[in-house]
Amino acid sequence: MPRHTPLDRRTFLKASTGAAGASLTASSLLMTNVSQASTRSTLAALGGKPVRTQPFTSWPKIEKNDVDSWNKVLQEKKWCRLDGNFANTFEKAYAKLTGTKYCNAMANGTSALYASLNAIGVGPGDEVLVPPYTFVATINVVLLQFALPIFIDTDRQTSQIDATKIEAAITERTRCILPVHLGGNAADLDTILAIGKKHSIPVIEDTCQSHLAEWRGKKLGSLGQGGCFSFQVTKNLSGGEGGAIISDDGDFIERSFAFHNNGRGRKGGGFSYPQGGANLRMTEFQAALLLAQMTRLEEQSRIREENAKYLTKQLQEIPGIIPAKMYEGCTHNAYHIYMLRYDKDQFGGASRRRFLKALSAEGIPCSGGYSPLNKEPFLKETFSSRAYQSIFSKERLDAYEKNNHCPENDKLCNEEAVWMFQTLFLGPRSDMDQIAAAIRKIHDNAGELAKMS
To answer: Does the domain formed by 64-291 have CATH 3.40.640.10?
Structure first.
């Protein structure tokens, strides 16, 4: 399978962070003149001067309250949540922040998804409807339950699961709809929730990239039976690692808590295990750090969204650059990833690979995003395993392979997608001017892209 991502998300952060770039103080008029001048110069990839030479805002941000919280856990010597109170405090704070009744703190986002599927009873022989355009964890947790991930094609205009194609994929074995709110944008929840209700199928929201994003004024993750978050170091709310499940369903929350605590619920104790489970607990260190980081989350979210909207207005004026749309119900985009589509026909036929290389050379870290998950070789290996061969008939697995096609997603992954990550959107507005200037420069010199290797 071709790989076309110069930077994955984690490598990207290393490339784009460091000491925070000095704020630019030129007037808007001067910035416009600089931008216009840059479009007439030689591409940096061909030896010209790059539009930007300073690093973008560093991540994660560390302040005194982070250090104080960490040291408090260290000195109290109650490092496990079974002994301390930071995880309990975080759960209450995050439930309040997201407008839900309950929250379970988890070791990571994968754990949150894993525990959620267990809590609703997904098991061998079941089917879970998923997008092919997501991080692999969304699929791995389905496979851990020995269920089949049924891939629903992507809406290329939004980079989200195409909700209009979900209902046709439902069978008597469908046990869960697992939409991903990719990049901080929102999937079409009006359609998805209505389908789930009509067929009595639980909807678990993968909100691992969508902290504080909203659908019709309500936080993503709060509208389905449960919402799953990640606090991995690249995320908009970071604890290094960490995760959470939010819900208004008390029974669901209790089952997911028990699963993540080796089968013991909040009310149980000792060596009694009402159900099976695993150790997926968040540490007190993670919880303390998250509580400190949360004090800046809303302000950072505001800055990202304002910068993203400002950049979008400029990019919409450049032929061949198509910022991802939002569905009408998305009232707040978290912009963990700024996603756009690249049309090579407007750039002299130059491949996306050359565009990404040129943009990186201009000082703007970028990526081609995910590859098509439904075509990953490990899936075929998994379905050839003894376990899957004993659960599913040969006819079922053959039909699965035959029908496992997502052409819209293939085009997005292989030809169009361009990503910029959240750290680029925490600086001054002049950073957005430079991003736009770099892309404008490449467009105006599109004929030169053919000279690149």
So the answer is: yes
In the chain, the amino acid numbered 240 is G
Phi, psi of 191 (to 5 degrees): -70, -45
- Residue found by looking up tokens 């302040």 in the block: 63
pLDDT digits (tens, 9 = 90+) for 69-98: 999 999 999 999 999 999 999 999 999 999
Least confident of 24-33, 94-103, 165-174, 386-395: 24-33
Average pLDDT over residues 18-25: 38
User: Beta strand 226-230 with 204-206: parallel, antiparallel or unpaired?
Assistant: parallel
Q: How confident is the model over 189-224, as pLDDT tens digits?
A: 999 999 999 999 999 999 999 999 999 999 999 999
Residues of the chain with CATH 3.40.640.10: 64-291
Give CATH 3.90.1150.10 domain extents, the chain: 9-59+297-370+412-451
Strand partners, 332: 214
- As a three-state string, the secondary structure of 164-213 is HHCHHHCCCCEEEECCECHHHCCCCHHHHHHHHHHHCCCEEEECCCCCCC
Dist. CA 260–CA 55, nearest whole Å = 40
CA-CA-CA-CA dihedral for 338, 326, 441, 356, to nearest 10: 50
Rg, Å, the chain Cα set: 23
Q: pTM score, two decimals?
A: 0.91
Domain 9-59+297-370+412-451: assigned CATH number? 3.90.1150.10
- Both tokens of residue 435? 């991003």
For the chain, how far is it from start to end, CA to CA, in angstroms?
Answer: 21
